[in-house]
Amino acid sequence: MLGPYRLDSFIGGGGMGAVFRALDTTLDRTVAVKVLARQQSDDEELLKRFRNEAQSAARLDHENIGRVHAVGSEEGWHYIVFEFIEGTNLRDLVREGGPFDLGRTIDVAIQIADALEHAAERDVVHRDIKPSNIVITPAGRARIVDMGLARLHHVSGDHDLTVSGMTLGTFDYISPEQARDPRAADVRSDLYSLGCTMFFMLVGRPPFGDGTMVQKLLQHQQAMPPAIEDLRPDVPRRLGAILMRLMAKDPADRYQRPAELAADLAACAAEEGIAVSVPRTAAVAAIPVSRPVAPRLPWLVPLLGLIVVVAALWWRAASERRPVDVPPAAAPESEAGAGGGARRVLDADDRDLSSEGDVRPMSAGPRNDSSGVLR
What we know:
about 375 residues, alpha+beta, 2 domains, about 35% helix
């Protein structure tokens, strides 16, 4: 017993501790209890982070995230109580049944992206997204477990990765920046890990699954992941591009928000005619929606009419301002010479420019100076 919780069976565990299926004897419900390893219990800094991160995770309320019920201590044992989720984790599903088809992979990825968006909005980063931390329920819903507890990896000092208790399997999905400094991890690190997890769902192995721990870390830092199209010819080019963007070495080259990923995955599914179930609206909210034109018509019509009227008035005023060139044939007969073909050439000094720009001769008589000639 740990407080009111009766530990019934061991589920799994790692360097951080063990997880048990338990009975909440107060509320008579099944829960999952994660017990901090005894050797970690004497570290006051770790215990403080343990409680703080449990409180952060408790703020999350999303159908694709396993909920936190309580945090407690009993005789030196520190534990967190989670919602117990019926189902099988992705790692075991793929190992037992083989890689997923395109539809199932995209559907699960959209659900996880939606959950990560919800967490990111509340400044909670998982930091340990991997197949064994994603449970698929009998109804096909994807649920992230241990949400927020991976923040326990934030331990000051040079031994973060050792203290974090990450298993060798975790190094198959760790982002380059998190491997260098766990404190540098943000939601884009979770997206990198989700990209590696999608690769696992499609191929049955992580992108860098061979070698020692150090070799895997170096591959995450330096090597390009295998092209998914070479391993799964049925994967469309757009989905392959999504995976490559998720697993970019530089966080700036990845999706910056999980909602962007969810939208791209939804568009890819629609393009391929794949039906997926999007649990919430993150994917939809990230897709630009063109607004209908009809609501704009009531004010567009009078505006267009005003523009037409103004343009007509301007054209009329511009026409009246233009100088009029009178052809010689139209000149009055009284100004013509006896031969009917006389013309005057005027100097600029003989003209008076009116305000409208009309040219008016000052004198009709002949000139004897050099400024004009009579022919």
